[in-house]
Amino acid sequence: METDRKLDALVAEKVMGYQGYPDLEPPHMIRRYGRDDRIPLPCFSADIAVAWRVVEKMISIGYKCVSVDYVGIWRCFMTRGGFGKPPVEAATAPLAICLAALEAVGEEVEDVQ
Fold first, then answer.
1. What CATH code would you report for 5-104?
2. Structure pTM?
3. Per-residue confidence of the chain (113 residues) as pLDDT tens digits?
4. What per-residue string of b and e applies to 76-105 under the rule 16 or more CB within 10 Å gives b?
5. Domain ranges in the chain?
């Protein structure tokens, strides 16, 4: 999967609780489940301020260990407790956050860098 709006749409749906529209052509709109309002799809995988909302969401649903660090590459780890899988690595912090959140909720994502 390329780092693009498809990844953002997957994060919006599987992590953040939004409903996407089948057609992801611009302007890339999503909506909250049960509501008819459309909002622009946030750039979760590219904007750190927006990606941090993903971290906040994961903490709010019970993820106790959330770590984002840089060691020559960005790493992110999320778990409900204890240690299991190694941290997800990516070229940017927002991308690492998105990939780790998707992995934590059980969503398989093809390699993205």
1. 3.30.2120.10
2. 0.84
3. 445 788 998 999 999 988 766 555 666 778 776 666 778 889 999 999 999 999 999 999 998 777 889 999 999 988 887 766 788 999 999 999 999 999 999 998 775 65
4. bbbbeeeeeeebbbbebbbbbbbbbbbbbe
5. 5-104
